[in-house]
Amino acid sequence: MRASLHRADREHLAMKYTVSIELALPREQVVHLLADPAHLPMWLRGLVVHEPLDGVHGQVGTRSRVVLRSGGQEMEGTETITRREPADLHGIPRDTVVHFEREIVAEGMWSATRDRLTDAGPERTLWASENEYRFGSVPMRLLAPVLRGVFRKQSRQHMQDFRAFAEHGTDVRDATG
What we know:
Blueprint: H1 2-13, E1 15-23, H2 27-35, H3 40-43, E2 47-54, E3 63-70, E4 73-85, E5 98-106, E6 109-119, E7 125-135, H4 138-168
Antiparallel strand pairs: 1-7, 2-3, 3-4, 4-5, 5-6, 6-7
């Protein structure tokens, strides 16, 4: 009973939101761009380091060290790939939903991202991203409702940056300001 209550308390304190974006590219092309680690610095604003600690980038079970910089602050964490379906990203049937899921653990924070990519018509892809955050400190848990908008805005910015990269070749590292 105590473990169930404890889990329910954690669920209650979780910050969750979903953001989505439509891209003017076929799903298979979007999937390959997202899955290729060489492209991460081009669209993941603030990325300083993304290096596998064990495993192969993008494969289930792979753990990577991730360092992100935002607003003059750095956040370092460990990312673990928890789902990639289908495992083979070539020749994906049109009605198949592609899933990329990962967890990041950093000091005082745990987050999970569940990405779904679906065909949205000829040469179009819908990318929906469910995000969940849990914080270890009482002050951060209390700030979570306020931070929800900030986190959502940052997630949306990453998706817009990816769309600009995928559709037009725009590299966030070339942006000024």
